[in-house]
Amino acid sequence: MMGELQRLRSESGAEEDQLRPFLVRVRFTAEDPAQVISHARAVLTGVVEQVADWPAFERWPKLLPTWFIQRCAPEHPEHGEAFEPRHGCGSGGR
Prior knowledge:
The chain is mostly helical and 94 residues long. Helix content is 43%, strand content 0%. It contains five helices and no strands. It has helices at 2-9, 14-19, 33-48, 60-63, 66-71. The longest helix has 16 residues, at 33-48. The radius of gyration is 16 Å and the shape is globular. The protein starts with a helix and ends in a 23-residue tail after the last helix. Mean pLDDT is 77; it is low at 88-94.
């Protein structure tokens, strides 16, 4: 996961893109595209930092940016089941 955090915290260059054949590119329009990317990086960084020790559902509002939480609708896991990551998540499927 350290590589993913490093990638989120830095600008991606063309050389790096060639080394990542699974990289997905998207196009979007926004009044401030740099701000959209900055916000996406902030949320993804908050999630990736937690992968090794996945927090309880109730802790996420304190771990993610306040502006993101305020814009999210309340989530109710189906049938009362909270999401639990599979064992081996982030370890290459081992």
